[in-house]
Amino acid sequence: MPTRKSSGGRKKSGGRKYGKAASKSVKSAMHREKRGTLKSGKGGEGGTVKSRKQAIAIGLSEARKKGAKVPKKKSS
Question: Measured between alpha carbons, how far is 42 from 44 in angstroms, rounded to an integer?
Fold first, then answer.
């Protein structure tokens, strides 16, 4: 009988980390960033977004506001 390898005592949680709605929201934000229409800040007053990372963050933020399945922000 083969022996099982332990994963260091940690239990893996199953399922998706991000929901499909979150993925759709990020995809939309990335597309708007490429076209140059994605704005940062409240009401889009912060200027045009240039960074991919910033576009992803905005997409996830929009998904959170809509109630999509997105993990909580890490507190720094």
Answer: 5
